Sequence to fold (419 residues):
Amino acid sequence: MTDIAILNCRQLVTLAGAPDARSGPAMRELAIIADGALQVRDGRIVAAGPRGEIERALSADTEIVDAGGRIVLPGFIDAHTHPVFAGNRAAEFERRVDGATYAEIAASGGGIRATVRLTREASADTLLAAGRRYEEWFLAGGTTTIEAKSGYGLSVDGEIKILRTIRQLADGGRLRYVPTFLGAHEIPDEYRGRIDDYVDLVIHEMLPRVAEENLAEYCDVFCEPSVFHVKQARTVLRTAQALGLGLRVHADQFSADYGSLLASELHAATADHLESSTPAAWAALQAARVQPVLLPASVYHLGSTRYPAARRMIELGLPVVLATDFNPGSSPTASMPMVFSLAATQMKMTPAESITAATINAAHSVGRAHEIGSLEPGKLADFAIHDCDDYRELAYFFGRDSALAVYVGGRRVYRRAGD
Ligand code: NIG
Ligand code: FE
Fold:
């Protein structure tokens, strides 16, 4: 039995409260304990409370962690990432800066398909090493769980290779992973013009293998008229549902009310992006209890100004989630603090709303709210000590990652260099 106690937290941001995903004014309630402390036993939280109270309950052999008067938050849950790929697209980024659009680059064989070519050629070891490098970036921002999508293999072997890499990364124990199968991310080169044949491959060969090897908890589809249109996306998602997978959808990134209505029809866990959605889509998502996952870093990196209407969604009562969308094309950042900055300046979400969106709401969206997303007795001790005096600094200082130390299951997995 290992007991640790984290003392001297200027703000212990617990997010304690109702077990449901939060919306409206409840997103601003962080349940902060001033001069707080946390007691942890065998990787789980035993108590969170004022320092004096916790200190009195400690046994003599408790290991003390001094938070140094900094703030302590639940580890962030990044509910939308694509972290396993080879190479990067810095050269394509330069073309975009010079005037080419994301859609033009994709149509000329670049974009996702360029990363697919490199990822297919890469060995499992190369992918694993790259994935470990990116883990460090997630941790530096205070993230402890990521939803991780495949989608750069687009063949049976390619997709399985990525999902097995995600499993190996998870076995490393530094970050928690929620694996998602995204075989319908693009149409690979050899299936151009034969989309229905590719959908057949996804539903008859890829999905059964993924389910048999238990390699994913969710299935996602890039639902756009120019990629997988609604009928094809529905076929993939229904097959996944029948195999017991949860559903997520890349929805309305470029086309109004496209994937979002399908996500609502199928009662998906989430509809992600929503830059082009209208009020009709928001109403459908709310009626079907589908959580919106907003990805402002991809809007920013694509040089667009069309951010999703976070304020309207929160006012309507939708339990908004924020995520990085970490990927080599549209969002090469693993930094949740950067996302908070964008959410504040571009979508008018307050720092408190952003923190709720990236903790308890995100935990709900990946089916883990009983285990993570708040610092409450019984939950896993996944938390970060941030180099801030106040939680608002997370969104205020931008362009830096603030975690000093990160703990997963009560074990320190990250420490800022030099500290
Ligand atoms: O969420 N839109 C589709 N998928 C990713 C981009 C992936 C890529 O460009 O490599 C996204 O933005
Ligand atoms: Fe994405």
